Amino acid sequence: MKLEKYLDQLRSESGFIWVSVINNEGLALCQSGTEEPFELAALLPSWICNGKDIARAAQMESGMGLICLVPKRGSHALLLRNFEVNNENYILLIATSKMPPKIATTLNNICHKLTEFI
After folding, report:
1. CB of 78 closer than 8 Å to CB of 43
2. Structural domains in the chain?
3. Which of 12, 48, 103, 112 has the CB geometry, 3.0–4.6 Å to 44, for a possible disulfide?
């Protein structure tokens, strides 16, 4: 299974609105759910202006590298989780209207699965 197919499957099974894998430079490797990679940018906090800011946000949380950004306007939560493959950093970015149960475990399992495709 290719990364794109996995993200499509993940999005449809989990009910996520948007799923993207971003490299450490803030460039999207693959995404599912929207035509434009940053179509949801209006829902991001004002200090996040580009992909590099998203990468920085994913690394701000020191322990698990997990951060949840809930915008003041809109109904979507943005979940970020950084992970590493072959000493390269990547970021999983998910937009969702409802939080999955056991969110940290869920994101950790998704990132573990993503290592098979990167």
Report:
1. yes
2. 3-114 (3.30.450.190)
3. 48
- Provide the mean pLDDT of the chain: 76
Residues with Cβ within 8 Å of 72's Cβ and at least 6 positions away in sequence, in order, are none
Task: Tell me the C-alpha distance between 76 and 18, whole Å.
Answer: 10
**Secondary structure (3-state) at 76:** coil
Q: Which residues contact 66 (CB under 8 A, 6 or more apart)?
A: 79, 80, 81, 103, 104, 107
13-22, 55-64, 106-115 — which is least confidently predicted?
55-64
- Residues 105, 100, 104, CA angle at the centre, nearest 5°? 25
What DSSP designation does 99 have?
P
Give the chain's radius of gyration (CA, Å): 13
Residue-wise pLDDT for 7-27, tens only, equals 999 999 998 888 989 887 777
- Give residue 70's identity as a one-letter amino acid code: V
